[in-house]
Amino acid sequence: MHLFLLxxxxxxxxxxxxxxxxxxxxLGMEDGRIKDEDITASSQWYKTTGPQYARLNWEEGDGxxxxxxxxxxxxSQYLQVDLGRLTFLTVVATQGRYARNSGNxxxxxxxxxxxxxxxxxxxxxxxxxxxxxEGNKNAYTSVINDLHPPVITRYVRLIPxxxxxxxxxxxxxxxGCPWEDGLISYSAPEGQLMMPPGYPIAxxxxxxxxxxxxxxxVTHALCTHGSFSILNGYVEMEFVFDRQRNFTSxxxxxxxxxxxxxxxxxxxxxxxxxxxxxxxxxxxxxFKTVLDDRNPSARxxxxxxxxxxxxxxxxxFNFADVWMMFSExxxxxxxxxxxxxxxxxxxxxxxxxxxPPVTSYPxxxxxxxxxxxxxxxxxxxxxxxxFLILWCQYVCKVLEKVRRETTDRELKDSIGTKxxxxxQILKLDKHIFLLFLTGCGGGYAxxxxxxxxxxxxxxxxxxxxxxxxxxxxxxxxxxxxxxxPALTVDSLTRKDISAAEFPRQQLIFREKLGEGQFGEVHLCxxxxxxxxxxxxxxxxxxxxxxxxxxxxxxxxxxxxxxxNDFLKEIKIMSRLNDPNIIRLLCVCVSSDPLCxxxxxxxxxxxxxxxxxxxxxxxxxxxxxxxxxxxxxxxHMSVQISSGMKxxxxxxxxxxxxxxxxxxxxxxxxxxxxxxxxxRNLYSSDYYRIQGRxxxxxxxxxxxxILLGKxxxxxxxxxxxxxxxxxxxxxxxxxxxxxxxxxxxxxxGEFFRNQGRQIFLYAPPLCPPSLFELMMRCWSRDIxxxxxxxxxxxxxxxxxxx
Length: 801
Ligand code: ADE
Prior knowledge:
single chain, alpha+beta, Jelly Rolls, 4 domains, eleven-stranded antiparallel sheet, eight-stranded antiparallel sheet, 32 strands, 22% helix, 25% strand, disordered N terminus, binds adenine, ATP binding, RTK, Tyr_kinase_rcpt_2_CS, receptor
């Protein structure tokens, strides 16, 4: 029997606390911060096409870097940039040689090599294993490539690639941010497949890992030596830091899943090495965990490290069961006198390890039985899926029968009738109602036109969301398309859009703010926008600086459905006008790609903003830690209630109110938005029903989940959850201890209201009266929930004027 060792070092893991979606700053080719001497090349054609001319948007010299002679398909000419320090590189932009209309050379494709030390070079590959990126199609337009995965590097080489002999020239900009995490390497057992009996196979390898692979263990690229092993009943991990630190503690987020044999570790011992070239100190720090067999929740285990000084640590985790599963490991350290924020080392990783008594690494040919095992399991899974599909069809028939047996009359009478039917269905099987939601149960919920979006109001016969194909729930940019009835592509045209058409050539790209399945959000400078908008322009004063705007752009290859949804979003947004709702300024829809231009909110989204702050105290002041006061939090809550009050006054249902959808400008004014494009960031907040719909279930009222009923009252529920997020400083996802399936089960408890439902806890920061207000937002009976007007009136007096 083979025992599997399993490990994940995920992208977030390796990348610590950097968020790739926000780390996209120009690194200095265009603005000259990268000096000429740091830009080199394998060759140059002339002096005037040397590497120093490879700067994006520059026309100096002969307008670009061009390697010598014709580039052949077998050539490896490169342009090299030394970024001066380790950098988290996320985006590359390239341009050809335009030279004020006298040049026409460009690279149609290129590869990227990178190196942390200038000696050991790695080839960048995307997650599908492709190394070649699409380059330019003409000499002047810059083409941007997102690095998925991003890389941590100091040296970068761009290597133009060609299929035929040709001359190439390049100008480039690199985007990213400084890599400041103190951890420079880790070593841990290599990931494999998790095949617990009765559960799906999970491959938990680190697809972004760029270190060396040494027989069944991974050693991070910079690790000089990383010998650790899985020995009888324990696993060892080694961490190397940039400099010596006094470690106060290690926090390990460890999971418990008793039914799957996963338990937190029983004890851990850590050894310390003061310098890289030194022996491990004999005396370890050991810590025994308290194993509580009644409490199955995942938890942080804080291991005191007694302020031991070290540059490297090696920790041995002892198993308490068959598996250990770590989601995150962070180290806290301080210098000898004070404990300051910049010495806190955030280092995240997800690690799942089995505890077989593996004493040596198996030979390579063990892969064959593993492969056979995988294949057999895949076949078994396919059989199970086919069985489930057949079973689903059977259940659908049963539901249809139940539906028919319930007369139309009864259904229209009251929601109570609907609920009792739901109850029957829920009793049938807790999973069946999920199938029902996906539409296979057929719809029986009546369209509710008492509250609806503007679209629904003039399409009151539109089918209810629960009956519609919910594949498109998220809309093109994630905006409120959930239940907007289908308009045909032809039915939405330019004349429906009241926002003015802006000349797109006056939008100058600055950086990428977000990206989603259907498009991207860019930060752009908008030349002449104040004059274009004329008097009463809502733009903030920029003191002579150019105007910055956020530009959402639909992908050129978007389907006509996505296109139509994009236009619908524009149409809705162009009707909204409130200080706490994001403002649509203008559009570019007369040609492709379709763009909508909104205000730029300098402080990004509220979730990110709060999660990076602590509550204001003397400690935060003394240590310069970014903070917010309780009064700031209340002011934020009032602003959101005010924006929602406005939406409610228009009978507009938001459907996805959450801190991730609230943006902050530089004065901390909050504006409600709904940016599905940036949702890649928050995908874990959405639940995918049978691969078809994405639903923010942790923010949804019970009736939205069970009946597909979205109203202002269900927005009030989501507002309660948003308040909860604000007062926990977005440090935790709502119901973080419940899986998505358990959240849905809990929704059933909310519906049954027999006192078994789990409520979100009162955040310690939250005044009791405010928590009472949240609890009222989560009233089972819809009329008992407050209105947004009521919420606004209740919250406003708490804010210092
Ligand atoms: N991300 C998406 N839209 C944005 C905006 N308007 N301002 C800042 N960041 C954004």
